[in-house]
Amino acid sequence: MKQVVLLASLGLALTYPPAAVFAGDVKVKVKDTTVVVRDKSKPVRKAIEDWYDRNVAAFNAKDVAAIMALRTDDFHTITPDGKVNTRADMEAYAQRFLSRIDHFITQEIQIGTIETHGDLASADVTQDTVRMQRLPDGTLHRVEAGALQRETWRKTDEGWKLCLVDGKPYDPSP
């Protein structure tokens, strides 16, 4: 059925150029005699959103192995002051961090515009969490935290994995 709609849309577009016609997740655009067909299903965005669903679930479960399985072997972070943390550093940090968490109340993620370059995808990501956490004195407190950082994923045989977190959001200005 989708093909019939697409063909009918293409026929309409050829009859009345220039035109842009959507058929499901496909956009057909005709200008002069050039036909451009684009997939608008946003497969990379959907894959990254699914990645975050798994990442949030792993944090909620306080499962460090599951968290690290979502990251590449060369995963690393760069703090706003330029310090580089290796995958091993981040695994140890996740273990310490999660040992103090009683439970997460919310984990909200907002993914900005995703830019793709070959097998890499990057976006500025805003993360806001509310959690019940034990402070060093042992008392349980509600902690609200947020971050805006540049994140980069690499497409692997197992799907998209996080390979870099840069604490400084992308600045396109020269």
Describe the structure.
This protein is an alpha+beta fold and 174 residues long. The chain has two domains: 38 residues, no CATH class; 124 residues, Nuclear Transport Factor 2, Chain: A (Roll). Helices cover 29% and strands 47% of the residues. It is built from four helices and ten strands; from the N terminus they run αβββααββαβββββ. Strands 4, 5, 6, 7, 8, 9 and 10 form a seven-stranded mixed beta sheet that branches. It is elongated. 11% of the residues are buried.
Describe the structure concisely.
The protein is α+β, with helices and mostly antiparallel strands. The protein has four helices and ten strands. The N terminus is likely disordered.
Largest sheet: 7 strands, mixed
* Structural domain count: 2
User: What is the number of beta strands?
Assistant: 10
State the order of secondary-structure elements, H for helix, E for strand.
HEEEHHEEHEEEEE
Return the structural class.
alpha+beta
The CATH architecture category of the largest domain equals: Roll
What is the alpha-carbon Rg in Å? 21 Å
**Number of helical runs?**
4
Q: Give the proportion of residues in helices.
A: 25-40%
Strand residues, percent: over 45%
The coarse silhouette is elongated
CATH topology of the largest domain, what is it called? Nuclear Transport Factor 2, Chain: A
User: What is the terminal-to-terminal distance?
Assistant: 48 Å
**Unreliable stretches covering 5 or more consecutive residues:** 1-18
